[in-house]
Fold:
Amino acid sequence: MRRYMLPLALSASLVGLAQPLVAAEMPNPLMELAPTAHQLNVIYFVADGVEPVPGYEQRLNELLIYLQQYYGREMARNGFGPRSFGLPMTPEGKVEIVLLRGKRPQKDYAYSGEGAINCLREIDAFFEAHPEKKRSEHTFVIMPTFYNEEYNDESPGGVPFFGFGKNCFALDYAHFDLRYLGEDSLRGRLMTKWFGGFAHELGHGLNLPHNDGTASERATLGTPLMESGNYTFGRSATFLTPASARILDRNQVFAPVGSGIDYYQTQERPELRDLTVRYTGASLDVSLQIPAGYRANAYIQDPPFVVNQDYDNVAFPMQEVGGPEQGMQRVAVQMPLAELTRLKNVGKGEQCISLLLIAPDGSRFRRELPFAWEGLQPGDALPIAPGEMSSGY
Ligand code: ZN
Structure:
């Protein structure tokens, strides 16, 4: 089965939100965003016998534009200009949301990998029949909440809600409306939970892994969206890390008109040369050569080193050192221990450094370097065991 990202334990999200509120208003005027060559597919999917939640087109139009603006502001702040994911628009200037009626009963599209696959199969069949509606490899699926003894508009759920490859799933319910975002009420808290979740899962669907900011970034910018920002979004400052922004910069639906790149075609794992990680006493310094044209992020986390336990991965964009030579480019970064204050195992126990390589066509490859602190002295280089790169996150 393809790997998918589950959200954090959702029950934890309605407590401990007594943080200062930020006004949640549509920016006025809207930031003018660079036109994109490709757009996100937006599908509103209902099971057989289920009707859309009333007003969905208007509510989701606003929410998607708000989110597009949020990503655009964060890209600009990170130095990539006013760029965001493209949305398909109708001639009237609204987001084009395709309403798709599923063939199966609702129970077949429940919160599970299987429910997601059942839905995606029908979306694929729809795209085969209507190729002009497939605007990119990235699809955002919204389903109405279940209405049963467990779920309703005050407690939505039941349907898939996670990133799944280049797709992501979110849900709709009657009060899923921008006007409640930031409100100090049950509806306001539900909005942060479900719209923050929507923003976070969309990040996964746009190729973003979990990551945390450095101590300095968190002190000034708040909570990273791809850490626990789904619980702060719309209520307190929530940001995209530089590492996330440079992945989005190479995303198909962020590509400006005329970029001409055929996205996600790279299959061959990139070669890494001369990889060293040195402990200086105050930092871990990573340096290596990667194929010219690639870029790399370095991350460091505590155990366990598995999917969905990686929210603590503190991210550092690696910088180019010198120019390319013989098709390879040296990149390096210092990870100061003073920036890792949220990690428990710094200086003791085990940790894992991950290198994420991003090809010019947006394909991604990961190499993990688990290591133990025991016996490590300033000046030592970490032993690097031979290892394979994996593709994807
Ligand atoms: Zn996640």
Observations:
- Residues 1-23 have pLDDT under 50 and may be disordered.
- The chain is about 20% helix and 25% strand.
- Residues 70 and 293 are 28 Å apart (CA to CA).
